[in-house]
Structure formats: C-alpha cells, structure tokens
Amino acid sequence: MGKKKLRIGIFGLGTVGSGVVELLKRKEGKLGSASFSLEKVVVKNLTKKRDINLSPEILSINPEDILCNLSIDTVIEVIGGIYPARAFVLQALEKGKNVITANKALLATSGSEIFKKAAEKNCYLGVRASNIAAYRLIESLTNSPSRIEKLVGIFNGTCNYILTEMEKTGKPLPDLLKEAQSMGYAEADPADDINGKDTAHKLVVLLGLTLGCFFPLKSIHVEGIANVSSEDIVFAHELGYKIKLLAIARRKEDILEARVHPALVPQDRWLARLAGVENGLEIRDEIGLEIGMQAPGAGKYPTATAIIEDLICIAQGRKLFLSERIPSFNLKPMSEIETKYYLKVYAVDKAGVLAKIANVFGDHDISIESVIQKKIESKKDNLVPVIMLTHRSREDNIQKALRKIKDLPVIKKNPFLIRVEEGIF
Ligand SMILES: NC(=O)c1ccc[n+]([C@@H]2O[C@H](COP(=O)([O-])OP(=O)(O)OC[C@H]3O[C@@H](n4cnc5c(N)ncnc54)[C@H](OP(=O)(O)O)[C@@H]3O)[C@@H](O)[C@H]2O)c1
After folding, report:
1. Which of 187, 239, 298, 315 is positioned for an S-S bond with 34, CB 3.0–4.6 A?
2. Which of the listed residues 10, 11, 13, 16 should we mutate to test ligand 1's pocket, taking the one with most ligand atoms within 8 A of CB?
3. Nearest atom within ligand 1 for CA of residue 48
4. What average pLDDT score do residues 403-422 get?
5. What pLDDT digit, counting tens, does each position of 151-168 carry?
C-alpha cells in the first residue's frame, strides 16, 4: 500500500490561514510519514495585497474549487463567523472530506450538527485550533475513561493581555485593546473578546466534547471585562488576588454549573500567574486526577500549529468523536451558585457609611471578611472607594443586597462586583 497523501484546500488566508500556509511551506510536502499538497486557497478578495507568496493558480474566490474538487480530501476552514463558514464545513463533510476548523463561534452554535455529519460520513473533524489553550487535551476530554468533573480555564488571549498590561502600566482598556489588535490577538469583532462571548464559545465547545452534547450559549452566564479597571486590579492585589476572565464548569452528579466572568483568583494559583496572551486550562476527572495545559490563547503561529496537529492526526488515520452523551443533567441557575465576592462602591466620605452597608449585608445573610477604604487625595466629589470582600454567600442574596446598597443615599455610583474563585480549584 502506498503512503498516504493529503490534498488540502483552505478557506481563508487571514491571520490564521497565512500562518497555516507558512508552516506547510516549511514542512516541504511531508507530515510525518505522509505527504501532502496544498491544492487551493479560497479567499474573499482576490486582489488584496498579501504578505504570503502563492502561485496564482492556487488562489481562488470560488468555493466550488474546493468543495467540488474530488481530489481535495482535507479542508481547513479559517474564515470565521457563521455564514458562509457553516455551509462550507457541512458541504465538505457531506462530500466525505475531512475538516479542520478554528471557528469556535461556529462550533458553539452548530457543533452538534457538524459532529453528527462528520460521524455519519466517517470523516475527521479537527477542532484543536478552536481553543488552543486546550489543544493538547482534546483527546483527554473526549476519550477520558472517567468523566470530567471540573474544567477551569483562561481562554481569551486578548483579555488576558489587557488585564496583564493594565496591572503593569495602568493604561485604560481601549488603548490596550488597540495594542492587542495590532498584534493579531483580537477577533475580527473584538467585542466578542471583551464581552466574554469568545470565552463562552470555547467553554461550550469543550463541554460539548466532554458531555457529548452542545448546549445553547444563552443558557450560561456570560460577563466580560469591560467594567474592570486598573484600580480594581490594584485593590485585588492588596487582597492577595489577580483578576482573570475565567471559564468555569463543574459537574456534581446530574447538576452542571457553567459560567464565564471576571474573577479574583488567589495569586499563588498557576492560572493567576498566566500573563499576557498566555491561556490555560485545568481539568479534574471523577477519580480526582488533575491535568492542565498552558499555551498562547491567540496568534498566527500557535493557532496554525494546532491545525497542523490535526493534519498529522488525519495523516495517521485517527478520528475524533464526541464523548458518549451523558444521559441528562440540569444546568444550575446562576442565582444558586455560592462563592465569595469583591464589591466596590463609591461612598460619600463621612462616618457611618460602612455600618449602613454592613446592615444591608446582614439582612441578606452575607458576612464581610475584609474591607479596604481608600482616602483619595484631591477628590472633587468627596467620594471614596470602599472595597469589601465577603465570606461565601449565595448569588441571589448578593444581588438583592446590591440593589439595596445602590439605593442608599450615601452611595453615589453603581456598585461593582467581581466573584472571588477559590473553591473551584
Ligand atoms: N486570529 C487568531 O489568533 C485566532 C486564534 C484562534 C482561532 N481563530 C479563529 O480562526 C478563524 C480565522 O481567524 P483569522 O484571525 O485568521 O481571521 P481573518 O484574519 O479575518 O481572516 C479571514 C479570512 O477569511 C477570508 N474570507 C472571509 N470571508 C470569506 C468568504 N466568504 N469566502 C472565502 N474566504 C473568506 C478572508 O479573505 P480576504 O483575505 O480575501 O479578506 C480572510 O483571508 C476564526 O474562526 C477565528 O475565530 C483565530
């Protein structure tokens, strides 16, 4: 039997697509014992100036040049978005082609349908590049002999870069977002980075791989980092924490907790120490075995590398299937979660303010662990930030208390709350 040869078609030649083409060029037609050829690259705009050199007969704007080309057996989708990426992926699978995609938004919204089609057509579906913080753990998630019970990660390079740089430089979020964009870390629409949606897409995909079913994005609580300031980072530091955008999922019997939000993480946890574009994931299975992975959360070459790893799996004849579907589980409502909370309020600088806030907390069964009250020099409005750390409390109680605190005459701006995650580790 002759050695395997992959004939590859790529949709998209942007940040990731050009990285893939560059890495393939370096491989000089060899992927381990298999060989490959790059047959077609389909883009949107044929006249666009590109840094990468490709012979004119490879570049096309006609999707049929890949989809209807019988010799192409492997398709890489790095366009992004849902339309037309979804149609290209499903059509390629329908025609019996292996597919690799970096598109977490697509997988989070159509993952069940796409995996079903891949299984029906016995095609490889490579999703490593959809979450490069986890790409070496994909098979641990799908093939683990014991079920995954906990998954905690930092899944967005742009947000982690912004939070790290805020700590180092005190620069505001919009300036740091521009920096992240110039380095190719941010999504085409960076709003999805900042509002937590990109992290949530990745959580839905990893849970889909683990649980055997993809549940709707809207069923999980998602909050981004737009309201986190360098001031919060300084206060968190004084309390012994770093602020990170976390994806959290925990399963206890048939109850699943899944959420994405900024969190105070104890400074000594390795996730807290991940800096810049670096992302990471910790998983624990039902027998208590913990493993983790750290990798850049974005960028041309890390993402392209994850795609090459999927190509090698195809060359080796491997398959990636979802875990066997877990029969049934219920999503825990956000109102029922229990954690510690960091609360920042701006209060009129006069005696008795703390007692008023403590009273509201007392009425809602919340006790305060520590308080920082700052004397800010040259304040125009006579307001001081008051930061409180609570003991473990229920989310619904803290939300009710917040509404009451907001209405106190001594409180002048909307209170800001960040969950403190210690128990999840
Ligand atoms: N950037 C990262 O660090 C990163 C990391 C992990 C995953 N991802 C994912 O990878 C995917 C691609 O991201 P990217 O950053 O490489 O995007 P990008 O730089 O915006 O590139 C998109 C590419 O798709 C092409 N395209 C757009 N619409 C098309 C259409 N209708 N038909 C054919 N080609 C079309 C564009 O063509 P033109 O060049 O002609 O405009 C461009 O080459 C996304 O799903 C993203 O979420 C990105």
Report:
1. 315
2. 16
3. 40
4. 93
5. 999 999 999 999 999 999
**Would you say the C-alpha torsion 5, 11, 16, 21 has a positive or negative sign?**
positive
DSSP state of 378: T
Q: Over the stretch 22-81, which tens digit does the pLDDT of each residue have? A: 999 999 889 988 999 999 999 999 999 999 989 999 999 999 999 999 999 999 999 999
Q: What is the pLDDT of residue 252?
A: 87
Instruction: Copy the structure tokens of residue 10.
Output: 């790529």
Q: What is the DSSP string of 389-420?
A: EE-SEEHHHHHHHHHHHHTSTTB-S--EEEEE
> For the domain 334-420, what is the CATH code?
3.30.70.260
Indicate the CATH number for domain 133-295+322-331: 3.30.360.10
CATH 3.40.50.720 for domain 5-131 = yes
Contacts of 98 (CB under 8 A, 6+ apart): 73, 74, 75, 123, 124, 125, 126, 314
Give the CA distances from residue 193 to residues 49, 137, 362, in Å, rounded to whole numbers and listed in that order.
Answer: 27, 22, 37
Listed by start position, the domains of the chain span 5-131, 133-295+322-331, 334-420
Residue with tokens 């994909």: 138
